[in-house]
């Protein structure tokens, strides 16, 4: 692949990624959504985060793995506990990583 083709491909891929995202900001910024839609959209980040994280915690090798032998689940529960108590993202990350390290060493998973 020559340089011109690569640059053209990168430019077109960037445009196809940017245009749909920018269109909502550029063309629909004056549209007022109903209040119930705005309330519902506030839950989207939490729902997406949950949908991404929970399967990683409770599934191991494609099978449901809920128990104290699951190091990722133990660490996730510890991180959630620290998040609720401290409301500090840095402390939550450090506590979760420490819990994962300890759980993997002591639980053997």
Summarize the structure.
The protein is mostly helical. Helix content is 75%, strand content 4%. The N and C termini lie far apart (45 Å).
How many strands?
A: 2
User: What's the alpha carbon Rg, rounded to whole Å?
Assistant: 21 Å
Give the number of helices: 5
Domain module tally? 2
Question: What order do the helices and strands follow?
Answer: HHHEEHH
The main sheet orders its strands as 1-2
Shape: extended
**Mean of residue pLDDT?**
92
- Intertermini distance: 45 Å
Strand content: under 5%
Low-confidence stretches: none
Structural class: mainly alpha
Q: Helix fraction?
A: over 70%
The biggest beta sheet, please? 2 strands, antiparallel
Structural overview:
The chain is mainly α. It has two domains: 1-31; 40-107, no CATH class. It is extended and about 55 Å long. Helices cover 75% and strands 4% of the residues. The mean pLDDT is 92.
Secondary structure layout:
Elements: H1 3-27, H2 35-41, H3 44-58, E1 59-60, E2 63-64, H4 71-86, H5 89-107
Helix pairs in contact: 4-5
Name a few traits of the molecule.
single chain, 109 residues, mainly alpha, 2 domains, two-stranded antiparallel ribbon, 5 helices, 2 strands, extended
């Amino acid at each position: 692949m020559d340089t011109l083709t690569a640059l053209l491909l990168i430019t077109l891929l960037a445009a196809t990624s940017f245009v749909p995202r920018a269109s909502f900001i550029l063309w629909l910024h004056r549209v007022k959504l109903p209040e119930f839609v705005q309330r519902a959209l506030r839950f989207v980040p939490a729902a997406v985060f949950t949908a991404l994280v929970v399967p990683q915690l409770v599934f191991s090798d494609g099978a449901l793995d809920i128990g104290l032998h699951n190091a990722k689940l133990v660490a996730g529960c510890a991180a959630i506990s620290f998040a609720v108590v401290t409301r500090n993202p840095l402390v939550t990350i450090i506590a979760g990583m420490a819990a994962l390290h300890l759980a993997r060493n002591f639980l053997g998973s």
